[in-house]
Every structure is written in structure tokens, then in C-alpha cells.
TrEMBL record:
The keyword Transmembrane does not apply. InterPro entries: HD/PDEase_dom (IPR003607), HD_domain (IPR006674), NT_sf (IPR043519), PolA_pol_head_dom (IPR002646), PolyA_RNA-bd (IPR032828), tRNA_CCA-adding_enzyme (IPR050124). Residues 174-231 form the tRNA nucleotidyltransferase/poly(A) polymerase RNA and SrmB- binding domain. Residues 21-148 form the Poly A polymerase head domain. It comes from the Bacteria. Residues 249-351 form the HD domain. This is HD domain-containing protein. Gene3D superfamilies: Beta Polymerase, domain 2, cca-adding enzyme, domain 2. It holds the Pfam family PolyA_pol_RNAbd. Belongs to the tRNA nucleotidyltransferase/poly(A) polymerase family.
Length: 447
């Protein structure tokens, strides 16, 4: 394995003091798969005490410790390396964090790997002997593209592992071994996932969405009954087959997020963009008719989005809500050959919330996430939108009338200012000059 020079120096020092060094977890897995992803390197140090490890590391930089309960140590000069002592864990409650930790520097490797979730994550790299140690069949599972738990009894102690399995399915595009899948379903049926914090659920969902095939992760959650209600409802909401030959809304959504995964880095907010694509049609179950029509499903989607409570960032919520509201506007404008003023009005509605660039991309992903797309319609959309962009730009026009103008012209009912300014701006888009706009607003209360 490729190891930084400073890390090698530290590892050699640990060996000279009687310790053993193993790189564990995802770093080893990705190395075996030829991935070049940069992430934290987990290092386990055996046969040294916590204090001995800290004493060695202090020679090479500032040591940050996370307490002897976890015995995890970081070094400021090696920010991507986590040093830890081998430990065992005992479940003490229902939550993901409810474990009591026991440090054992001399713990046998066979017992140490039992706390690992999956066999492909239980591989160890023996630094001294420069070899892989595989005590759970992880290499064979890697070769066969299989996701399998290490120890069934330990696996079910942590409900977060269900979402981690979904993430690795999406990231690696592997199959889940039947017994492991059955354990995940059992954990869902026993409502163990209800004990997960909103923050951890958001983190795992976000990581699924940022993979190349996010649909695989959500399809797994569907198969084991773990989808949240607003996504589960999509699975039984049918659409008009002439518009959506792929079938129900969930199938459509999965196609959309897979298309979106290939363009997300071209957007201004890749993660928020992926969340928007996942949630863009969550209003359809509320409004879909027996014939498969879904009138005003965008507005219904904004309503349903209020129940998605584990997205807490105000800016993220504003972005996603705006994308849900306007995700189909551009395609509709193209289809109906909308006038310039419709485009300018849309620029104003999304101003400061979502870029036109991102709205274009979700519109395209929504269009392409269907069982069949007419190339001519897609080409016509791009001709339409490029013409609007070239002539009208991508930013809302600055308003020529503001609150100061209203006050100077005698408007006193400040509670009406927002409505008045909205009308003033629309008159501006229609081509009216400032003086004529002010005359048109005389119907409102004046002093």
C-alpha cells in the first residue's frame, strides 16, 4: 500500500517500541479495488498502551485525543490518519451510540474484526509484513461483488448498519448476501431504525445520493421496507404510461437520480441538487388522479417537503423547496413556446435561491428519467433555453422601483409594500418605465 513518508516513520517507531501496526477498513478495501478515493486512513496499534501510543505520536506533532473510552488519536501533521487501539464493544441501549467500549491492546485479531460491519470492511493490512490479513472471507466477497456481514449477532446491534449497507450497494454496485439482507429487514421490522438520529440518517442518505448509482441504495431500502413515508408513497403512485412508460413515480425518481449523478458536479450545489432530484415528485401521491394526471404536484411537493425534517440547513431547504416548485417550469415553457416575460418572471422567482444552471439540469434529468424520451423534444428544449439565455441572461433584472421610491411618492401602508413592489416589478418586465409604473400603482393607498 502507498503510505505517506511521515506515516511510515511513525509506524516504524511503533514497531521499535514493540507494537504492531495494521491499516484497517475502507482504505484496504479501496486499495484492493484499485480506487483512488482520498479518505481517512484507520490505523490500529496492538500491544501498546494508550499512553505509550500518545508518547510516540507526540514526537511528530500535536496530538488530539478523543478520550480513553475510544482510544482514538489524531496527529495534526497527519490529518487524514486516525490511530486507535483494538477494542470490544457491548451494547447498552437502543441508539446507535449506545455502546460501552473496552480497550484491549492484546486482543486477538480474530476477535478484533468481530466489531466490523461487513467482510469487505474487515480486511487488515499488516504493515510490518506487507500483507493483507483476511479472517472473514472479505477478499472472496470483493471478488464476487458480495456484501456480507461479519458477525450476525454483532451486526444487528447497530441499526445504522442498515443504511451503511444501502450506501455500499450504491457506491460499489455489489449484491447483498441473502442472510445479511434478511437481517436488515428484521431490523427494520423491529423498528430499530427509529432510534437513529436525524443527523445520521441525513448523512447516510447524502452519501448514497453522491454515489454513481444512488438508485441501487434506495431500491435496497425499498426491498426491506425501510423507505420513509414520502418515498414509500411513490412506489404505489402510477403515472400516465404515454408520458411515463417506466411506470410508477418511484421508478421514475430512481431513473432521475441516476441520470443526475452524472451531471451533479456541473451544478452549483451538487448535494442539494441530488436531494432535489430525489424529492422533486414527492407531491404526486397527494394529487394523482385515477387516470395518472398529477395537477399542481409541484405545489403539493413543497407541502410534503415540510415533513422531511432531517434536512436542517435553511439555505439547503430553500434551494430544495425552490427546485421542487419549479422543476417542470422550463420544460413546460419550451413546450408552449412561452414568451420572454415568462422566462424573466421565473428568473425573479428563483433569484437568490437557485441558479438557472441548476434548474436547467433538474429539468433535463426529469425529462431523461423516463422509459422513453423523444430526441426531438429534448433538442427543442435546448434550442429554446439557449435562446432565452443568450438574449435575456441568467440573472433576474434589478428592480427599478424599491421601498424608498414608494415612500417618496406617498405610499404609507407598509404592510402592502411587498405586494406593491411585486406588481411594480411585473410592470417593469412588461416594458413600463418608472414614471408610468408609479402612476399605475395609484390605486394603492397614498397619503
Amino acid at each position: 500500500m502507498k503510505i505517506e513518508a511521515l506515516a511510515q516513520t511513525i509506524f516504524d517507531d511503533i514497531l521499535n517500541h514493540g507494537g504492531e501496526v495494521y491499516i484497517v477498513g475502507g482504505t484496504v478495501r479501496d486499495e484492493m479495488m484499485g480506487y483512488c478515493d482520498q479518505h481517512d486512513v484507520d490505523v490500529e496499534v496492538y500491544h501498546l498502551s494508550y499512553n505509550q501510543l500518545c508518547t510516540i505520536l507526540q514526537q511528530y506533532g500535536h496530538v488530539n485525543t478523543f478520550g480513553q473510552s475510544f482510544a482514538i488519536v489524531q496527529l495534526d501533521t497527519l490529518p487524514h490518519y486516525d490511530f486507535a487501539l483494538p477494542r470490544q464493544e457491548k451494547k447498552t441501549g437502543h441508539k446507535h451510540q449506545d455502546f460501552e467500549t473496552f480497550i484491549d491492546p492484546d486482543l486477538p485479531l480474530e476477535k478484533a474484526i468481530l466489531r466490523r460491519d461487513l467482510t469487505i470492511n474487515a480486511l487488515m493490512y499488516d504493515y510490518q509484513h506487507k500483507k493483507i490479513i483476511d479472517l472473514s472471507g472479505g477478499l472472496e466477497d470483493l471478488h464476487r461483488h458480495i456484501i456480507r456481514c461479519v458477525d450476525e449477532k454483532r451486526f444487528i446491534e447497530d441499526p445504522l448498519r442498515v443504511l451503511r449497507v444501502a450506501r455500499f450497494i450504491a457506491k460499489l454496485q455489489f449484491e447483498v448476501e441473502p442472510q445479511t439482507k434478511a437481517l436488515c429487514r428484521q431490523m427494520v421490522e423491529q423498528h430499530m431504525l427509529d432510534n437513529l438520529s436525524k443527523e445520521r440518517v441525513y448523512q447516510e442518505y447524502s452519501q448514497i445520493l453522491m454515489t454513481d448509482m444512488p438508485s441501487l441504495g434506495f431500491q435496497f431500502l425499498k426491498d426491506i421496507g425501510a423507505l420513509p413515508p414520502y418515498l414509500q408513497a411513490l412506489t404505489t403512485t402510477n403515472q400516465r404510461l404515454d408520458f411515463h412508460p417506466e411506470g410508477d413515480v418511484f421508478t421514475h425518481t430512481m431513473l432521475v437520480i441516476d441520470v443526475a449523478s452524472h451531471v451533479k458536479q456541473k451544478t452549483d450545489q451538487p448535494l442539494w441538487f441530488m436531494w432535489s432530484c430525489l424529492l422533486h415528485d414527492i407531491g404526486k401521491p397527494l394529487v394523482t388522479t385515477e387516470q395518472g394526471h398529477a395537477p399542481l404536484h409541484n405545489e403539493a411537493g413543497v407541502e410534503v417537503f415540510q415533513t422531511v425534517d432531517f434536512i436542517t440547513s435553511k439555505k439547503a431547504r430553500q434551494y430544495i423547496q425552490t427546485m421542487i416548485m419549479y422543476h417542470m417550469h422550463l420544460m413546460n415553457m419550451s413546450r408552449h413556446h412561452a414568451r420572454d416575460i415568462s422566462y424573466l418572471r421565473l428568473l425573479k422567482k428563483i433569484d437568490g435561491k437557485v441558479s438557472m444552471n441548476d434548474l436547467i439540469y433538474i429539468s433535463c434529468c426529469d425529462k431523461l428519467g423516463r422509459g422513453k424520451v423523444a430526441q426531438s423534444q429534448y433538442d427543442e428544449f435546448w434550442i429554446f433555453i439557449q435562446d432565452k439565455q443568450q438574449r435575456l441572461g441568467n440573472q433576474a433584472l434589478p428592480a427599478i422601483i424599491d421601498g424608498h421610491d414608494l415612500i417618496e411618492n406617498g405610499f404609507q401602508n407598509k404592510q402592502m409594500f411587498k405586494k406593491i413592489l411585486e406588481e411594480a416589478y411585473d410592470l417593469q418586465l412588461q416594458g413600463y418605465r418608472k414614471e408610468k409604473i408609479l402612476r399605475s400603482l395609484r390605486k394603492y393607498e397614498q397619503g
